[in-house]
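ARCHIVE CARD
CATEGORY: sequence design from structure
SOURCE FIELD: tokenized fold
FIELD CONTENT:
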């Protein structure tokens, strides 16, 4: 499985200051807990999962989550934030192998 390629989506239309904006993001990741056995070989599949997700909007942390192997493969995360001014929202995913994946999109405030 290809790991990475995070995607993020916010409204392409300008929003008003103070409006709540829906942010949707997902990443391709196996999210192996380290507890599952391979059905063909019977061997335990090594753990490999996202351990943290952080979202920053205009330099301010708006979401900081700690995850475990209990999250499903190719995880999706949606959250809301209050739009204050035009600027980027950047989401950073980190996994237990030390890999870091980033994606960003601009929120436009009219």
């Amino acid at each position: 499985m290809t790991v990475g390629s995070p995607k993020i989506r916010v409204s392409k239309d300008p929003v008003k200051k103070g409006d709540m904006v829906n942010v949707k993001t997902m990443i391709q990741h196996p999210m192996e807990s380290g507890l599952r056995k391979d059905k063909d070989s019977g061997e335990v599949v090594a753990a490999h999962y996202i351990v943290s997700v952080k979202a920053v909007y205009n330099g301010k942390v708006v979401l900081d989550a700690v995850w475990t192997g209990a999250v499903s493969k190719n995880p999706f995360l949606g959250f809301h934030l209050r739009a204050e001014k035009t600027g980027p929202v950047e989401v950073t995913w980190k996994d237990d192998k030390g890999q870091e994946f980033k994606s960003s999109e601009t929120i436009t405030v009219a």
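CARD ANNOTATION: The beta strands are 4-9, 20-28, 50-57, 60-66, 76-82, 87-95, 100-107. The CA atoms of residues 90 and 96 lie 20 Å apart.
SHELF: design records, drawer C
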